[in-house]
Amino acid sequence: xxxxxxxxxxxxxxxxxxxxxxxxxxxxxxxxxxxxxxxxxxxxxxxxxxxxxxxxxxxxxxxxxxxxxxxxxxxxxxxxxxxxxxxxxxxxxxxxxxxxxxxxxxxxxxxxxxxxxxxxxxxxxxxxxxxxxxxxxxxxxxxxxxxxxxxxxxxxxxxxxxxxxxxxxxxxxxxxxxxxxxxxxxxxxxxxxxxxxxxxxxxxxxxxxxxxxxxxxxxxxxxxxxxxxxxxxxxxxxxxxxxxxxxxxxxxxxxxxxxxxxxxxxxxxxxxxxxxxxxxxxxxxxxxxxxxxxxxxxxxxxxxxxxxxxxxxxxxxxxxxxxxxxxxxxxxxxxxxxxxxxxxxxxxxxxxxxxxxxxxxxxxxxxxxxxxxxxxxxxxxxxxxxxxxxxxxxxxxxxxxxxxxxxxxxxxxxxxxxxxxxxxxxxxxxxxxxxxxxxxxxxxxxxxxxxxxxxxxxxxxxxxxxxxxxxxxxxxxxxxxxxxxxxxxx
Amino acid sequence: xxxxxxxxxxxxxxxxxxxxxxxxxxxxxxxxxxxxxxxxxxxxxxxxxxxxxxxxxxxxxxxxxxxxxxxxxxxxxxxxxxxxxxxxxxxxxxxxxxxxxxxxxxxxxxxxx
Lengths: 490, 113
Known about the structure:
Structural class of chain B: mainly alpha
Helix content of chain B: 55-70%
Strand order of the largest sheet of chain A: 1-2
Shape of chain B: elongated
Number of strands of chain A: 2
Order of helices and strands of chain B: HHH
Largest sheet of chain A: 2 strands, antiparallel
Distance between the termini of chain A: 24 Å
Strand content of chain B: under 5%
Oligomer: heterodimer
Low-confidence stretches of chain B: none
Radius of gyration of chain B: 19 Å
CATH architecture of chain B: Orthogonal Bundle
Largest interface: A-B, 35 and 31 residues
Shape of chain A: globular
Number of helices of chain B: 3
Number of strands of chain B: 0
Number of domains of chain B: 1
Structural class of chain A: mainly alpha
């Protein structure tokens, strides 16, 4: 039994703007609003899952039937991503309850809610312009959250992010203008049907504009310059949310564009090559980093490179692997970030070299970090192994042996720098300095949930895959999606 | 035609400001110029010569005499978004100026790859 899916966007938006008022009543309330609201989203997306797996759920808003009105189109893919976003959002919201001490806390919670609501909207909507609006809601709140810590570097990172982000959204808007000018519609399914009659010179320009625009949020090379700064200067929980929420929504938009809306075979090869370049450059930059959070940020870009490779393969199995990789990354990267945040806090510096011996001083935190590192490297019983295995074997089957070799090479580099940190945690003598403050129970709870999901997905990959298969099929074969939307009003 | 020329010149002027200027306020101005350019382009797409705004104030006005209202709705939304981005950008510029005592973006480079 699920409620109207519009509530998944409307309620968090409404609650976000209610937070300042609630904060006047009591300082305690704003902390729990995101937990409740995103918890509701989580419930909704779990309850909708059995329905959307069979057939996309089309929500008609204000009785304007598609293709005229704005409608929500919740197919298998959108629902899986909404589930990932709500799950990460929920876990990070639990972590936030005790983590956010710095004033103004209510603004933090408000912006966080807006970010999650925007990302949820991006994956649920069936309208191209609506996608742009939700992209803007997500990115404006991300800019503000990047600058939340009022120091020099936070503002600098936020300004960089804002510059590249707002330029990219201009590209998106230009692309939408071109598409609307030639097809006369904004509904994604309707565009997909009409775009084959449009002059291919115009569609290719629109495609380039839109891919550039959404490439920024999905961390595609060379548009990912914002990522390392934003990840490392934002509050830790926000860094986790960037990896688990914002980037996922960006990749969804990119996948929707290249698979559903446009009809170019050449773009897949382009995405594949960009994926390889993104992966290699990010991994090589990560190994040079001295700060823990920057290293994690580059590793996050590298993971996205792997997802792009999978999307560029354009086979059902390959896309499945890519989605699995997105799922893994969404679970593991927040785990790494949240534990790294506390490790950095205890060691008193952002540098990796100051983490010596934390494994003995803070065994639980170090365990979570090591667990996440092993999972993301792809150690067999954990979930990272399966997604990498699928992607690389699919790449070889697709005939791209060189790409597979390069991806494996990237994975080796990844293993090197993660093991270097884990080794420092456990096999070095601890420093003398001691901070006696305990990890909050809410943070432990948040990290345990993520670790359990990772372990579960690693032990039962078939169960996860059974949900990802319809999602991948929806992308590769777009006819069912188009038909479901365009016949919804009849 | 003139609208398209105006739109693209605004976009190009804005892009020039963003890419070349060192002063952060000018960069933000450039961003909002690009925004305006794109908005004009959107409105121009929906404009049909000799037709008027789709407001049902005059009963003699028929649907054939109206321009496409969808781009206008889009532009309204885009203007609001543009205002939000510009305001936030200026806030960040103010904070950067507080910390660095300069508006020159080439002097603010503490974060590097």
